[in-house]
Amino acid sequence: MDSESWTAITGIAGIAGTALAPIVVERMRRKSVRLEQLTGQRLAVYADLLRVTARIVDNADFWSSVPVADLEQADPNELDRVMSQVQVVASKDVQEAVKGFSSTVHEFNRKLDLIVRPYHEKLVGGEAVDSELAIRQRMDLGTLADAIRSGYKEVEKKVRSDLK
Questions:
Q1: Which one in 17, 89, 140, 147 has a CA-CA gap of 20 to 30 Å to 133?
Q2: pLDDT 10s digits, 28-58
Q3: Which residues touch 53 (CB under 8 Å, ≥6 apart)?
């Protein structure tokens, strides 16, 4: 290749580079802005998620020892909102951890509402509040409450990892 051809190619490349540079810079800027927005949204959703799930953990701990306790539960509308936001902006790892946590909470609530609470409510007026069955039921709930706490710790770990 002679020097005139090389000069022409270099000139064309320089002009093309000069013309494309603003487009490339703008794309990089937009991508950076989107990433910052996503990180901000995740931060807000994760804060809500950890607050709501911490209440669930505390309630499960208490209900495993006092199944008939009347505790303030997480607002179902707020819980639905947070879970929907998790599905939209959370990382796959956080979504999987939340899915496992939710499954354990569902199992705990099902056992509490369908089996343990009705039995304990019958016992409240009687003498045998600590029957063998009642104690075994509370121990089963305690095992599930421990699993809920472990699930919460896993969610928390995944959230921290995602925000690094």
A1: 147
A2: 656 655 777 768 889 999 999 999 999 999 9
A3: 101, 152, 155
**Quick check: is 83 in a domain?**
yes
Average predicted confidence (pLDDT) for the chain: 85
CA distance 85 to 12: 49
Contact status, residue 61 vs residue 143, Cβ threshold 8 Å: no
**Consecutive H or E run containing 40:** helix 3-63
Residue 45: other Cβ atoms inside 10 A: 22
Is 12 among the domain residues?
no
Contacts of 8 (CB under 8 A, 6+ apart): none
pTM of the model: 0.78
For the chain, the domain total comes to 1
Structure tokens of 136? 């075994």
**On the CB side of 10, how many CA atoms lie within 13 Å of its CA?**
7
For every residue of 116-138, DSSP letters joined together read IHHHHHHHHTSS-TT-HHHHHHH
